[in-house]
């Protein structure tokens, strides 16, 4: 857990609905605090302050949120962005009890041996395809880690993979995500390229694995998808 404290000051918000567009024009971001079944609290703050807090805290680092009347320990539940300009437009905070367990989404990163910047597989010219960028965990708010790591040195040969169970997890933190969920898998470049061609440049790890391991043709995969779609319509 990072020991850096994040403090954010906001004020009460008087407008809601479509009227908040005027706030955004003035560099203000609307937000709401959900507090254990109590009435939601409408608040607002400067774009710079709220965006900085989001970038620092993500959805896993507690924030000391201060209003003129009250102080809360919160986690960011959702952050909405305007898609074209990628500008923050709204935040939802969940008030939490520092002494009770909460659920949060924690980013995961590959960890290499000292002096290395990639896995053994990548250093040998193979491709490591990431399949999971974060995991759900449960822990006391003050014990939530900012990031979790898995040992990427175990990724050596084609077919090698890392799972959630390979993540080094701190004491007091437990996984919600299935420990058997794959984080990253090693592929042979030509097999991945073939799967990409068959999928129109958008192959998934499952498709790449299917082509490499079972020899499934693109036509076979497409037929399977069509069959599934037909079954859904008939239900």
What does this structure look like?
The longest helix is centred in the C-terminal third of the chain and has 17 residues, at 218-234. By secondary structure, the chain is an alpha+beta fold. Helix 4 packs across helix 5 (205-214). The protein is elongated, with a radius of gyration of 22 Å. It folds into two domains: 7-96, Beta Barrel (Ribosomal Protein L25, Chain P), CATH 2.40.240; 102-226, RNA Polymerase Alpha Subunit, Chain A, domain 2 (Beta Complex). A hairpin with a 4-residue loop joins strand 5 and strand 6. 25% of the residues are buried. The protein has a seven-stranded mixed sheet with strand order 1-5-6-7-3-4-2. A five-stranded mixed sheet has the order 13-11-8-10-14, with no helix packed on it. The chain has six helices and 15 strands.
Alpha carbon gap, first and last residue: 48 Å
Total domains: 2
Average pLDDT value? 84
Extended strand count: 15
CATH architecture of the largest domain: Beta Complex
Oligomer: single chain
């Amino acid at each position: 857990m990072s020991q850096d404290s994040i403090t954010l000051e906001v004020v009460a918000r008087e407008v809601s609905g479509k009227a908040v567009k005027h706030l955004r024009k003035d560099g203000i971001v609307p937000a709401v605090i959900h507090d254990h079944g109590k009435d939601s609290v409408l608040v607002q703050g400067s774009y710079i302050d709220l965006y900085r807090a989001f970038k620092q805290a993500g959805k896993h680092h507690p924030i000391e949120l201060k209003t003129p009347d009250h102080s809360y320990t919160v986690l960011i539940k959702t952050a909405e962005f305007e898609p074209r300009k990628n500008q923050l437009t709204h935040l939802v905070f969940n008030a939490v009890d520092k002494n009770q367990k909460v659920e949060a989404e924690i980013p995961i990163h590959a960890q290499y041996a000292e002096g290395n910047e990639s896995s053994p597989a990548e250093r040998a010219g193979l491709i490591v395809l990431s399949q999971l960028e974060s995991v759900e965990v449960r822990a006391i708010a003050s014990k939530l880690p900012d990031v979790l790591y898995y040992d990427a040195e175990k990724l050596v040969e084609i077919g090698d993979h890392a799972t959630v169970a390979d993540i080094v997890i701190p004491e007091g933190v437990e996984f919600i995500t299935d420990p058997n969920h794959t984080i990253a898998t090693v592929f042979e470049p030509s097999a991945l390229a073939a799967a990409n061609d068959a999928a129109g440049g958008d192959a998934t790890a499952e498709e790449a694995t299917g082509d490499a391991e079972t020899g499934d043709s693109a036509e076979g995969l497409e037929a399977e998808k069509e069959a599934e779609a037909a079954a859904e319509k008939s239900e």
